[in-house]
Specification:
Lipocalin, 8-stranded antiparallel barrel, elongated
Length: 190
């Protein structure tokens, strides 16, 4: 009788046990966007069309670890061909020399479905600290083909582009220094 009660208690405690799972970001449901001031009149919205990444997530504890997002800088798109070409040049992303921009973070813990993710951004060969305000929107089985288990998240951050040697137009006020970063993602559990 003692062993039966112990077995039941052990089974009950294990059923509430959460586990970490690896998630791969779905590139078809990933938006990496940015806003930058243009001559103080308005902000230009741009995005990157080619990015990938993943992270480990424990829904039970809210722990997120091993975050890595890789953005191909040549995929920058603002809707104006001449501007996109300039952004790919040495004045900005210098895509020939620096084809990738990478965000990495070791660990964050959600509280009330939100967390500040302290990580690093590597851009133009320089690595600087970057904090993202993360919101866990929802997790569950997707109604899309294959019915993957999906975690959806939103993140926001900001950084001075001059910290990465990207100072074109800052001194004369043509292009703002402050970059607002916008990330929307869906990731499939592996």
């Amino acid at each position: 009788m003692k062993w039966g009660a112990c077995s039941i208690l052990l089974a009950l405690s294990c059923s509430g046990y959460a586990e970490s799972n690896r998630y791969e970001i779905d590139p078809d449901h990933l938006t990496v966007g940015f806003l930058v001031e243009h001559v103080g009149f308005a902000k230009v919205f741009g995005m990157f069309r080619d990015a990938s990444g993943g992270f480990t997530f424990d829904e039970g504890t809210g722990e997120i670890t091993d975050v890595r997002v890789v953005v191909r800088t040549a995929s920058v798109f603002t809707g104006v061909e001449a501007r996109d070409g300039h952004l790919r040049s040495e004045d900005f992303f210098d895509v020939e020399q620096f084809p990738e921009m990478v965000f990495e973070a070791k660990r964050a813990v959600l509280s009330e479905r939100a967390a500040v993710v302290a990580g690093t951004l590597t851009l133009r060969g320089q690595t600087q600290p970057l904090q993202l305000e993360l919101t866990w929107n929802k997790s569950g089985v997707s109604p899309l083909p294959g019915n993957p288990y999906v975690a959806g998240m939103s993140a926001r951050g900001r950084f001075p582009r001059s910290a990465f040697g990207m100072s074109y137009g800052v001194a004369d006020g043509l292009v703002g220094d402050d970059v607002e970063l916008i990330i929307e993602l869906e990731a499939h559990r592996k």
